[in-house]
Amino acid sequence: MKTLRDRILKDGKCFEGGILKVDKFINHQMDPNLMKQIAVELIRRYASTEINKIITIEASGIAPAVMMGFLLDLPVVFAKKKKPSTMNDMLTTKVFSFTKQREYNIVISKEYLTKDDKVLFVDDFLAYGNAAKGIIDLCQQAGAELVGMGFIIEKAFQDGRKMLEAAGVRCESLAIIESLDNCEIKLKEQ
Ligand code: 5GP
Prior knowledge:
Layout: H1 2-11, E1 13-15, E2 19-21, H2 23-27, H3 32-45, E3 53-57, H4 62-72, E4 76-79, E5 90-97, E6 102-109, E7 118-126, H5 130-142, E8 145-155, H6 160-166, E9 171-179, E10 186-187
Parallel strand pairs: 3-4, 3-7, 7-8, 8-9
Antiparallel strand pairs: 1-2, 5-6, 9-10
Helix pairs in contact: 3-4
The structure holds guanosine-5'-monophosphate.
Guanosine-5'-monophosphate (5GP) binds at residues 19-22, 27, 60, 98-99, 123-132, 160.
């Protein structure tokens, strides 16, 4: 997706340890127009797939997920990183965060992820695929069908896609970073 690739090259910043900062348009300040274009492109890629729910993880996946849910008129569920005191019947799993270097739990109420669901998972980044792995686990626990995953940015050098393809999960990314070596953003031609 050319608009996104150009924006990453213009406003993205590299950090130590293979981290790309996109705070100017995705992770802190957000560009709703770009977010809409992202949602439209992900919808186009999954046009032939039956989906009845979009799922994501708080916080940065919520914007693209809501945009897709709005355009498709589908409900959006975000996995929470803290169990609300009012939530009793829930699905839970552990996720290792590579950017924060610690493990955390994610929870989804059993009411909002069930065996009747055909879900598309959407997130801002695919790195090692730990968050994605957590979602696979929650879908298995619920008996829901995971029809695919969509990411705004994939870091190809961190192998999340390999894990997802080995697990038989369809994976679409709108911009693929080949390397951040020497603090230079190298994008894959698409
Ligand atoms: P994974 O679970 O695939 O290892 O990492 C994906 C999650 O970690 C995403 O939800 C994202 O929030 C965060 N993440 C991973 N790599 C980056 C990065 O380079 N930049 C930012 N801003 N977040 C990242």
